[in-house]
Design goal:
With 168 residues, the chain is mainly beta. It is 12% helix and 38% strand. An eight-stranded antiparallel barrel has the order 1-2-3-4-5-6-7-8. A hairpin with a 4-residue loop joins strand 1 and strand 2.
Length: 168
C-alpha cells in the first residue's frame, strides 16, 4: 500500500473512532430553528466573539425578508466540546425590540449539531406602568443547515415596509 493510501486509511480510522461526544460543536455556519427562522454566524475570533445575521420567519410571512444583525460570544471556544454561548439580535430594521439568546452547542449521537437556546425578547413600552408586558421568554432549538459558502442571509434582504414585532 502506498503512503497516500495508508494516510487515507489512517484518517478514516481516526474519524470513525471519534465518538459524537468527542466532536466539538462549531457555532459558525447557517442554522434553522423550529420556527423556520434562519441564523448565520461568522467565524469565531480567538477570544470567542462572533457576529452574524438573523432572519426571523415573521418577516418572511409578509413576503418581506429583513435580516437583523447579531453579536455574541462563546465561552472557552477551543477547550470545550459543547460550549455555552450568548448573542443579541437587534430588530431595528422593523421593530423597536431586542432579543438576547443564551444556550449551548451539542453534537448528538447521530453527529447532528444542535443549538439549544433560551431567549428574552424586550419591546419598548411607553411607561414604567407598561413594563410588565414588555419582556417575553421562550426557547428555540437550532439545527445546522447545510449551505454553499458565503453569506446567504444578506442576499435575501430587501427593502420593505415595517412589520410587527418578531418571534425569535
Amino acid at each position: 500500500m502506498g503512503s497516500g493510501a495508508f494516510a487515507l486509511a489512517l484518517f478514516l480510522a481516526l474519524v470513525v473512532c471519534i465518538s459524537p461526544a468527542e466532536r466539538k460543536c462549531q457555532l459558525s455556519g447557517l442554522w434553522r430553528n423550529e420556527q423556520d427562522s434562519l441564523m448565520e454566524i461568522s467565524t469565531l475570533t480567538d477570544d470567542g466573539g462572533f457576529q452574524g445575521e438573523y432572519l426571523t420567519r415573521v418577516t418572511l410571512t409578509g413576503g418581506c425578508p429583513r435580516v437583523s444583525p447579531l453579536k455574541g460570544a462563546q465561552q472557552q471556544p477551543s477547550e470545550v466540546a459543547s460550549p455555552t454561548f450568548a448573542f443579541t439580535v437587534r430588530w431595528d430594521m422593523f421593530s423597536n425590540a431586542t432579543t438576547t439568546f443564551a444556550g449551548q452547542c451539542f453534537v448528538e449521537a447521530s453527529g447532528r449539531e444542535v443549538l439549544s437556546t433560551t431567549w428574552l425578547l424586550r419591546e419598548a413600552v411607553g411607561s414604567l406602568e407598561e413594563d410588565w408586558k414588555a419582556t417575553r421568554v421562550g426557547r428555540n432549538i437550532f439545527t445546522r443547515k447545510r449551505a454553499p459558502g458565503g453569506k446567504i442571509l444578506h442576499s435575501l434582504s430587501s427593502s420593505c415596509e415595517d412589520v410587527a414585532s418578531p418571534t425569535p
